[in-house]
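Module 6 notes. Inverse folding takes a fixed backbone as the condition and produces residue identities as the prediction. Think of it as a translation problem where the source language is geometry and the target language is the twenty amino acids. Below is one complete input and output pair. Work through it position by position during the lab.
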């Protein structure tokens, strides 16, 4: 059994497959290294320009201190000691409208590119009564002191602020960096006149803001009613966070999305008043880190976000493509095996190894070319080179051009199917499953009349071997005669009395 040619070939093919899997693993390591380098590039751009951005506000706050005297000690040691309480008064807008447009700008470090955005936002905030800015005494005969009311706008990374203009009613207010808020310190602010404290007829502020950032913009729905309209020329948005858009339209030339939220549906106002962190997709904007486990902590304020993802990221697509390498090798080996079986050919193990190596080289060509060319052109160049090489080699390996061309065409069909799968997002699994089923059906139809037992008949015990003529005379043995063909014939002898 172990010396049968079929068993030997299966063992050799198994060893070749293991070697090719090791090669594919090394190529996957190269792709992962490139992905890691790209992540470092994105971090480098964020460090130099601005990171993912967050918009929170506008809101009004005022820092207050309540102090009172407490008598301590007894007798001659009695004295008055001042105690104090520090607190923050906040006023959230009743109506918050944000209209924005995001223009994409591509930044690069060496071969790696990162998506950045330039956001131009027009924000209108309306407050009703500002009674919440009136301090309330908690101790008898206490003294109250409050700082000037401050209207503030918090952002994720203040380095991204390009221009900003704030108008209160018809009056333009000078803006200064920082927010003077103990939790959300990055942003801008303007001091309001003391007369607005406790104002009953409300207040309207308008902010025009130009902000740059990297890859994602997040918004906290701080108003009693929040309306956000965002448009962009980027055709691949990824909506995330606690709320999806109420309306959205994604086209090849860009997208538009609109959110309408009520304070009845979100706890953002209470979260911000309580100093909760702002986290989107597990990312803590204040700590600039992802919490353990990659999940959004429970103490994060409600928010929603738009990420400007790149679906044709060459490294991501190359990583997905290499995962199909084993299937490519298996299907090509099956095709060569069918030629062996149906056409009574013999293909050497080394030829299988060379064919598999050519298939593996496609993935390395793909990732290397995609660093310099668009992914579609890189894929076409790598696939064409490998198909021509395999078609040429198969014509000699299988004995004729008429046999090599179908094998090359089959490999080209595999590359075409893989490209379709890489472009699909929602239906990739079902298309791949159907294609694999069709391949299996074709193999079963082609081999339906093959006598598989006939391939292993040589493994049965063989009959005793009859010596053939050697052409040399045999030595004479008493009682035997030798014929002309060197076979011996036994002649009975008479027993002596």
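Target side of the pair, the amino acids:
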């Amino acid at each position: 059994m172990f010396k049968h040619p079929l068993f030997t070939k299966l063992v050799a093919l198994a060893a070749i497959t293991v070697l090719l899997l090791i090669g594919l693993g090394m190529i996957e390591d190269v792709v992962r290294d490139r992905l890691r380098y790209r992540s470092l590039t994105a971090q480098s751009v964020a460090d130099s320009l601005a990171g993912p951005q967050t918009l929170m506000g506008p809101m009004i706050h005022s820092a207050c201190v309540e102090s009172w005297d407490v008598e301590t000690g007894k007798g001659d040691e009695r004295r008055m000691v001042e105690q104090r309480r520090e607190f923050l008064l906040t006023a959230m807008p009743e109506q918050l409208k944000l209209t924005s447009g995001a223009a994409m700008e591509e930044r690069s470090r060496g071969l790696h590119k990162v998506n950045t955005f330039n956001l131009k936002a027009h924000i209108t905030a309306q407050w009703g009564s500002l009674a919440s800015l009136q301090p309330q005494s908690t101790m008898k005969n206490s003294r109250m002191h409050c700082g000037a009311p401050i209207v503030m706008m918090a952002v994720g990374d203040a380095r991204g602020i390009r221009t900003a203009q704030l108008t209160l009613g018809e009056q333009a207010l000078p803006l200064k960096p920082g927010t003077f808020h103990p939790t959300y310190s990055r942003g801008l602010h303007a001091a309001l006149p003391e007369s607005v404290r406790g104002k009953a007829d409300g207040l309207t502020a308008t902010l025009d803001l130009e902000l740059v950032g990297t890859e994602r913009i997040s918004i906290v729905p701080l108003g009693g009613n929040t309306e956000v309209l965002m448009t962009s020329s980027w055709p691949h948005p990824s909506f995330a966070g606690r709320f999806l858009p109420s309306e959205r339209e994604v086209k090849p030339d860009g997208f538009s999305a609109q959110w309408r939220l009520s304070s009845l549906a979100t706890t953002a106002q209470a979260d911000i008043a309580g100093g909760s962190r702002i986290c989107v997709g597990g990312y803590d904007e204040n700590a600039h880190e992802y919490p353990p486990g990659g999940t959004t902590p429970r103490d994060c304020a409600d928010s929603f976000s738009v990420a400007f993802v790149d679906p044709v990221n060459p490294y991501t697509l190359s990583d997905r493509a290499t995962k199909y390498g084993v299937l490519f090798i298996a299907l090509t080996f099956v095709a060569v095996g069918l030629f062996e079986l149906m056409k009574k050919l013999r293909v050497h193990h080394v030829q299988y190894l060379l064919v598999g190596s050519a298939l593996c080289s496609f993935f390395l060509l793909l990732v290397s070319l995609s660093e310099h060319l668009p992914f579609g052109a890189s894929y076409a160049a790598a696939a064409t080179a490998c198909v021509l090489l395999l078609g040429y080699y198969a014509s000699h390996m299988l004995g004729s051009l008429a046999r090599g061309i179908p094998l090359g065409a089959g490999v080209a069909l595999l590359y075409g199917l893989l490209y379709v799968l890489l472009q699909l997002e929602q239906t990739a699994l079902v298309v791949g499953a159907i294609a694999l089923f069709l391949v299996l059906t074709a193999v079963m139809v082609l081999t339906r009349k093959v006598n598989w037992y006939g391939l292993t008949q040589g493994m049965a015990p063989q009959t005793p071997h009859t010596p053939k003529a050697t052409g040399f005379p045999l030595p004479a043995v008493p009682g035997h005669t030798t014929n002309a063909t060197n076979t011996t014939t036994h002649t009975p002898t008479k027993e002596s009395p």
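Reference fact for the lab report: Residues 281-296, 458-497 have pLDDT under 50 and may be disordered.
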